[in-house]
Design goal:
heterotrimer; A mainly alpha (448); B mainly alpha (192); C alpha/beta (1004); B: 192 residues; mainly alpha; 1% strand; globular; C: 1004 residues; alpha/beta; six-stranded mixed β-sheet
Chain lengths: 448, 192, 1004
């Protein structure tokens, strides 16, 4: 055939460089009423959550629904949830970059921003959940006159480092990635934004030398970020795997958690991209192909997660450890059966629909599915944490935990916090990489 | 209740008196035994309370006079320090043991007598304060092999017209000594 | 005046105490005031505890106590080792007497009812004036005086005082009067008295519903002696059979539980006696012929029909009973139906024919918890009051308005009395009707004495200055006498009650063995010993001449109508309800139901199923006399046709902790006195579910062990056969050599770090051994722990949320009990196991949980950040988190409202909001002794350090010591074949060893 198929991820209706810049800069135009409405809404929720937090700090953790022996509840559940969300960003932007998969260009910016904001959200919860927030800094190893040190045997200390590193690196990655685009926008912007962009574009002029250093730096950062995708959630999983709680103490946890994290992360990317693409009219750049690729990722990780569930139950049975067996029996048929089955259905069964190309390419279906996956992944953490704790070794000391309004409020607040940042980002920075999209558009030639 | 303690009071006053007499004679004897009596510290006559470091006390009790000029042993008043975790605050009785006889003209002593007559305790302001989650056994330190002097932690009390906190009393400060003296650094030695 | 004055007096008492008031809340900030003593109290050194001997007055048993006093305030009540009754042990109620002293709801001064009908403060003089004025215009015989059991000098003072007024109106009222027992002894032996029961000599105990480990006569002594006699020794093991429709806490400790048809104990006992006499009459005294004819009417076969107990069981019991040195007991208040006297009489006969009278049942010392009181006496007085026969009524140490059925109408009858004077310390139901309240001193503030039985003269002395503006009733009476004109005043030489008391003792000095000693020395000596203990006088007892004529009316069924029988049984925690004002007791889980802060209805699961009732459903219990509503507790240890409710809750007064909590079961009972003059605690009732439901305020998550071997038991057969081995749920996984080595090296390194100062040399490893065969589940240790370690109470909602802070809890598990298989109940005290490889330690990010070099799991409160990881990782779930600010007086969760904060142990930090806390084997006691030992330059002797729980345990079930010392008691016990460690399979290497419970069961 005469016409060659467009390279993967290339906008269908061949835009020119000018189109790209125009279309994407257009997304930064003056926000409408709906945008402000949304912003106001999330900020309200955020304030409610913050109020609840102050109340909890003043009166004590008792205002949360904790029922010993369940000493960790919604807070840690949500913490792990957000850390999980954070993962796909780096995966898409760093790993796919190293693999030179072109289709990432349109979506990686969103994913990366999401990563940073998710980590920012996750980072709050360890603070929210400790009994004496005002002493939380004791977890940081710093020399002090009391000659006291932190306990490096404690996974919580590892957490501190894992999350800290991840936040630093992914933030750098995002900012560096933004430089050329911000520069492009800078030239069109006015007022305070101009100042903002001038600073964040680090005096980018697009000279060859700058490009050479830039690409090099970006490559290094990508290489640096890649192992974190695996390490961070492994460390988080060890918070549990290092414990002796039946249902926690399993070697499968690290891969299981990483897969789950990417799974939930990709789902969140889909959840964000669908409306974004619609609102910003980016159909030309974020195409169905992108969604299909994303859903292939979903399918892959979803299968791993489903397999992990099966393995957990198998091992519980196969180990012959009566406590494990009881714990898993309790998960499926105990007081919390509903949580367990929500998780299994959302994460274990629904992804099977993605075997069908129709569904992979049906954006509304994907959107709904992604919501279910998010829900399911939250419940996965709930089941692992709460249900395991409520059914441990000492029958006399077993208890039933129900979250209180304070916990729900603070959790809602965390979502608000996340979306607030995302909304602000979406209107002030290009959510699709101008520079990289241009890279994959063939050079404009003179008409023959 | 006063009815109940009055006889006790009498008893203790008597005891205190005997104690003082013995103490005085003992000192006299000592003084004779020491040839070339050392330069004796004379507490400055009058100092204005406000200007001095440390909290102002309801009665301007002069450690520099009692412990310094008259060289009274710390344990004479803080009698519990070598047997108890608490140093013991002398009862007003103990004060009156001497001040029935001496210091009559002194306005501060007058305050003391007034308080005793009214049966009203003097509310001293605490100078050395440990947080309640620390347990400091005075006796272990007073009688330790490290031969710790009261002054090591409380400073030159016998030169202080008005007592102020000399050491920080912070954990780091405790540990320095415990490390050098090879005393225990187990947390539950002090925290429980 | 009022509060300010009080505070001032406290400060004066407190002396130098930066540990006292300041310890409440770790708040630094405004400079603390140091307040010296005006006059230092005798032999008190600030910072050093002083112990005063006194007598516990929480129940009529008369246990000796040592009160620990710091800086002039009582901080703990412990048993007096010199006491022949409790020998250094003390029950939960006794431990909690401290909260009677510091109860925030104590009346802070005299009160008078004003014109508006409300109570208002009044000066003592005005109060006296009112009484004197009223007494002046009253004929003596229209004056009545109700007291509780006051056997002693105060008792005589009251009588003398009334006599002086020309009144006969003295009434002693003890709700637990043991009328049935005394009446029965009158019938069988012709004496209206109680014998003393020698559990120490009894290798075989047959209890017909006597809760002798809970409230019956002298529970602590009973427990001590029973635990000793019942335990496994070379000679064998004691055996205990409990016969009651319901398995009480005592029943839980039985080797066999028999639930005969309700109220047929008499027939059962007679049938047993019949077989004993017929087949094993060897030990029978000569005069059993008096009862032979009587007994012959009760052959096992016919009896079996009546009681629903198989004839062969009856024969077996008879055989066992006569083959061992045995003891049968009856007359428990819980089992007091209107045939209780028959049961008691039958048991008396049983004991006699088995030759136990004079051996294990000894008359002569006449212990009398009821002080000769009967419920009928109260009924008569109430009638007199209603008829307007009483103008002035004094009430002291009794609360008839609560401890009698509402049908009696004592409260209303008080309306007919012109002037009611109450001496209540806390506003109780009776005082609420009084015109004048002259609050008495707390027993810990009093001079007094007490004679629980002949030959025992106990002393009470004030251990600290009165907390409030109260006056001892003895002083009040003497003062009043002084103002009542020469005729009265002339009879009393003493000005104060102390003088009166001393005078009484002076006259008896020789009789009390003080011959040839100056009185002051004798007095001081008695004071230090807590009293004078003479050997019990004994008296040979023969059957009454007319015993043969006794007729045992065959059981006519429970009075009233209803398909179920209600047992109103005494709460082992609240006794007759007087303990309900103590927060420690309210939060102490009932040994059987484990429910706190309220009442409950014990229903057999099958009965419950019939009525569609599940745990926590509210049940309305209706009798002919009233109704009560309480949540259901499904209990397999009760007959299907019986339900049971504990007495002691449902107060309409008695302060914030007791008020409007649970149901007052007295109101369900018939106010009609029984034949023996007591109150029948049985009622026919009907029940229905109200439809409401609540989460039971109980720490018991699950009541079944799921085969995890937490609380293990075996039978004596296995022990004899030498094959009694505890089983392990999961064998300790093989730890690779390398890992074992690393662990050890790490431990060694840790030790080296601290192996300086007083930890130099080999370290002890502190450990506990807990003998489950001895543990009765009485929970005295729990309250002792609360008291020693400043543990806050969290209230009902807290317990419902599982947030109780009880560092030491008594776990209760049911085994069997479904269908026809017999129920056994396992009991296990669970506290921090001080693991050698503690899962809690490595996960703490800040070393707040760490391993001390003497083998404790240290918990440093002020270092704790509150991640709660340690608790998640603790397989025993013995770490407790401060969800609220219990130490801050401004917080809603404040647990120590003034003056309750004075109970706080200055040696232990009061924990802040947001920190984890737990048992550390009373590390403050360990460090205290270590300091002492270093000062005295000596080693610590084995058994010198006692944990609070061990010290309190009436059964001596707990042993503390150094596991590294092969000769220490604890390490020897830990080597026992019966020893096991909970969840050993997890390789936590716990420092607590449990010895399996041994049951002396028999094959049918």
């Amino acid at each position: 055939m005469a016409t060659t198929a467009p390279p993967e991820g290339l906008p269908v209706s061949r835009p020119t460089y000018a189109d790209v810049t125009r279309d994407i800069v257009a997304t930064l135009g003056n926000p409408g009423r709906i945008y402000y409405g949304l912003l106001a809404f999330v900020i309200t929720i955020l304030l409610i959550g913050f109020g609840a937090l102050l109340y909890q700090i003043k009166v004590g953790l008792g205002v949360a629904g904790y029922t010993p022996p369940v000493m960790w509840g919604v807070y840690i559940t949500t913490f792990v949830f957000w850390v999980g969300i954070a993962h796909s960003g780096t995966l898409i932007s760093a790993i796919l970059f190293l693999f030179r998969s072109a289709w990432r260009t349109a979506v990686y910016r969103t994913a990366e921003a999401m990563t940073v904001f998710a980590v920012m959200t996750a980072g709050l919860f360890p603070l929210i959940h400790v009994g004496r927030l005002w002493y939380a800094y004791w977890l940081i190893p710093y020399p002090n006159q009391r000659m006291l040190w932190v306990n490096f045997k404690s996974p919580l200390v590892w957490d501190l480092f894992a999350i800290g590193t991840y936040f630093t690196v992914s933030t750098c990655f995002l900012i560096v990635g933004l430089i050329p685009d911000v520069a492009a926008v800078r030239d069109k912007a006015t007022g305070w934004r101009k100042k903002l962009y001038t600073i964040t574009s680090l005096n980018w002029r697009g000279t060859d030398q700058q490009w050479r250093h830039y690409t090099r730096a970006y490559l290094y950062l990508a290489a640096l970020a890649t192992p974190l995708v695996l390490s961070v959630h492994s460390v988080v999983s060890w918070d549990f795997a290092m414990g002796i709680v039946p249902g926690w103490h399993a070697t499968i946890f690290a891969p299981y958690f990483v897969a789950g994290a990417i799974y939930s992360g990709v789902a969140m990317v889909v959840t964000l991209l669908v409306p974004l693409r619609r609102v910003f009219k980016l159909e030309r750049y974020i195409t169905t192909d992108h969604f299909e690729n994303l859903s292939k990722l979903l399918l892959l990780t979803g299968m791993i997660v489903a397999y992990a569930y099966a393995t957990e139950y198998f091992i519980a049975w196969y180990s012959g450890n009566t406590f494990e067996q009881a714990s898993f029996w309790n998960r499926a048929f105990g007081d919390y059966w509903w949580a367990t089955w929500t998780m299994i259905i959302c994460n274990g069964f629904l992804p099977f629909f993605l075997w069908f190309k129709k569904i992979r390419r049906c954006i509304p279906a994907l959107f709904v599915l992604s919501l279910f996956v998010n829900l399911g992944m939250w419940f996965e953490r709930f089941v692992i944490i709460v249900v395991s704790l409520s059914f441990e070794y000492e029958p006399y000391a077993m208890g039933h935990y129900t979250p209180s309004w304070v916990e729900w409020a603070i959790m809602a607040g965390s979502f608000a916090w996340f979306f607030m940042w995302f909304l602000l980002f979406a209107k002030n920075f290009p959510t699709v990489s101008i520079a990289e999209v241009k890279e994959i558009i063939p050079m404009p030639r003179k008409k023959a | 209740m006063t009815g109940k303690v009055l006889p006790v009071a009498k008893g203790i006053v008597a005891l205190a008196l005997v104690g003082v007499v013995l103490y005085a004679t003992f000192h006299a004897v000592q003084a004779q035994q020491t040839q070339t009596p050392p330069e004796r510290f004379i507490a400055p006559v009058d100092v204005d309370t406000a200007g001095l470091p440390g909290p102002v006390q309801p009665i301007f009790y002069r450690h520099d006079v009692h412990a310094g000029q008259y060289e009274m042993d710390c344990l004479y008043c803080h009698y519990a320090a070598e047997v108890s975790s608490s140093p013991g605050l002398p009862s007003l009785d103990a004060c009156m043991g001497c001040h029935l006889l001496v210091g009559g003209g002194n306005p501060e002593v007058a305050k003391l007598r007034e308080a005793v007559n009214e049966g009203r305790p003097v509310e001293w302001v605490e100078v050395h304060k440990l947080p309640p989650f620390v347990h400091f056994p005075h006796m272990r330190h007073v009688l330790s092999d490290a031969e710790i002097e009261c002054q090591d932690c409380h400073g030159e009390i016998e030169r202080m017209p008005q007592v102020y906190q000399f050491a920080s009393l912070k954990m780091g400060w405790c540990l320095e000594c415990h490390e050098t003296e090879e005393a225990t650094t187990d947390c539950t030695a002090c925290h429980y | 005046m009022g509060k300010e004055m009080d505070r001032r007096r406290f400060l004066k008492v407190l002396g130098v105490t930066s540990g006292g008031a300041a310890a409440v809340g770790c708040s630094t900030g405004t400079p603390e005031k140091l307040v010296p003593y005006l006059v230092p109290p005798e032999n008190q050194i600030p910072g050093v505890a002083t112990y005063y001997a006194s007598t516990c007055r929480e129940c009529p048993a008369g246990c000796g106590v040592h009160v620990r006093v710091r800086e002039g305030r009582a901080v703990k009540v412990e048993g007096n080792p010199g006491s022949p009754f409790n020998g250094g042990k003390l029950c939960a109620r006794g431990q909690a007497s401290l909260q009677g002293l510091y109860n925030p709801d104590r009346l802070r001064g005299p009160m008078a009812r004003g014109a508006d009908g409300g109570l208002a403060p009044i000066s003592w003089d005005d109060a006296y004036a009112r009484i004197v004025e009223r007494l002046g215009s009253t004929a003596g015989d229209r004056v009545a005086f109700v007291t509780g059991n006051e056997s002693g000098t105060f008792d005589r003072l009251v009588n003398a005082w009334l006599t002086a007024l020309g009144s006969q109106g003295r009434l002693v009222f003890e709700p637990f009067g043991y009328e049935a027992l005394r009446y029965a002894n009158q019938q069988v032996f012709g004496v209206d008295a109680l014998p003393s029961y020698r559990f120490a000599e009894a290798r075989y105990v047959l209890s017909f519903g006597s809760d002798f480990l809970e409230t019956w006569i002298n529970p602590v002594q009973n427990t001590r002696e029973f635990a000793e006699a019942h335990s496994v020794t070379e000679e064998g093991m004691g055996r205990y059979v409990h016969i009651e429709p319901r398995m009480s806490m005592s029943g839980i400790n039985a080797d066999e539980w028999i639930a005969p048809n309700t109220g047929t104990e008499a027939v059962l006992a007679l049938a047993i006696a019949n077989v004993v006499l017929a087949d094993h009459g060897g030990n029978a005294p000569s005069d059993v012929f008096r009862v032979r004819q009587l007994l012959e009417q009760y052959d096992p076969e016919s009896a079996a029909g009546v009681c629903g107990v198989p004839a062969e069981t009856i024969r077996r019991l008879a055989a066992e009973f006569s083959e061992n040195s045995s003891l049968a007991i009856a007359g428990g208040m819980g089992n007091q139906h209107d045939q209780a006297h028959a049961a008691a009489a039958a048991v008396g006969i049983l004991n006699y024919v088995a030759g136990n009278v004079g051996r294990t049942v000894v008359f002569g010392s006449d212990p009398d918890p009821g002080a000769g009181s009967t419920y009928r006496g109260l009924a008569d007085l109430t009638q007199r009051m209603r008829d307007g026969g009483v103008d002035v009524l004094f009430v002291h140490g009794a609360n008839p308005a609560y401890n009698a059925p509402s049908g009696l109408g004592f409260g209303e009858a008080l309306g007919q009395v012109d002037l009611t004077v109450s001496f209540a310390r806390v506003l109780d139901e009776t005082a609420a009707h009084a015109d004048l309240i002259l609050p008495d001193h707390d027993p810990l503030e009093q001079w007094n004495d007490f004679e629980p039985r002949a030959g025992t003269y106990l002393l009470q002395q004030p251990v600290m200055q009165p907390v409030f503006d109260t006056r001892q009733t003895g002083d009040v009476l003497l003062a009043l006498a002084g103002q009542l004109g020469a005729s009265v005043a002339g009879r009393f030489s003493a000005q104060t009650y102390k003088e009166y008391l001393q005078a009484a003792w002076r006259t008896r000095q020789n009789q009390l063995g003080g011959r040839g000693v100056a009185f002051d020395d004798f007095w001081a000596a008695s004071q230090q010993a807590g009293g004078v203990y003479q050997p019990e006088p004994t008296r040979a007892q023969r059957l009454d001449r007319n015993v043969g004529g006794l007729t045992f009316s065959s059981w006519s069924g429970i009075a009233g109508s209803g398909d179920l029988t209600l047992m109103a049984y005494p709460s082992s925690v609240f006794y007759d309800g007087r303990g309900a004002s103590r927060p420690w007791l309210q939060e102490l889980p009932d040994p059987v139901s484990k429910i706190t802060w309220g009442s409950w209805v014990e229903i057999h699961p099958e009965t419950a199923a019939e009525h569609g009732i599940v745990d926590g459903d509210f049940v309305e219990v209706t009798s002919a006399h009233g109704t009560a509503v309480a949540p259901a507790f499904l209990y397999p240890g009760i007959r299907r046709d019986v339900i049971a409710m504990p007495l002691g809750q449902g107060h309409s007064e008695l302060g914030r902790y007791a008020q409007d909590r649970g149901a007052n079961v007295y109101n369900l009972l018939s106010s009609e006195p029984t034949e023996f003059g007591g109150l029948s605690h049985y009622q026919a009732v009907s029940i229905r579910a109200t439809g409401e439901h609540e989460v039971l305020a109980s720490p018991a998550g699950r009541s079944r062990q799921m085969g995890r071997g937490i609380a293990q038991s075996t039978t004596y057969e296995h022990v004899e056969a030498g094959d009694a081995h505890p089983f392990h749920v999961e064998h300790a996984a093989e730890v690779p050599e390398a890992i074992e080595q690393v662990l050890d090296e790490w431990q060694a390194a840790q030790d080296r770090e601290r192996a300086i100062g007083n930890y130099a040399g080999d370290h002890p490893r502190w450990g506990l051994a807990i003998d489950l065969s001895r543990c009765t589940g009485c929970s005295a240790c729990v309250t002792a722990c609360y008291s020693e370690n400043n543990i806050p109470v969290v209230g009902k909602l807290g317990v419902q949320r599982g947030r109780e802070m009880s560092w030491l809890r008594i776990e209760r598990y049911f085994e069997g009990g479904e269908g026809d298989e017999p129920l056994t109940v396992e009991i296990l005290p669970m506290m921090c196991q001080q693991c050698g490889h503690a899962p809690c330690e490595p996960v703490c990010p800040v070393f707040a949980a760490y391993h001390t070099s003497d083998g404790l799991n240290g918990q440093i409160y002020n270092r704790c950040v509150g991640t709660r990881y340690c608790s998640n990782n603790c397989p025993y779930k013995v770490r407790y988190f401060n969800w609220w600010d219990h130490s801050d007086e401004n917080s809603a969760a404040h647990s120590f409202p003034e003056p309750l904060h004075l109970q706080l142990n200055p040696d232990v930090t009061v924990r802040d909001k947001g920190v984890m806390e737990k048992c550390t084997f009373c590390v403050q006691r360990i460090r205290g002794k270590q300091n002492q030992a270093v000062l005295e330059d000596r080693e610590i002797a084995d058994g010198e350090i006692m944990t609070a729980c061990q010290q309190g345990c009436p059964a001596d079930a707990i042993t503390f010591g150094d596991l590294n010392d092969p000769n220490s008691a604890v390490s020897r016990l830990s080597q026992s074949d019966l020893g096991y460690r909970v969840l050993d399979g997890l390789n936590t290497d716990p420092g607590v060893t449990y010895l399996m419970r041994v049951r002396h069961t028999v094959e049918e």
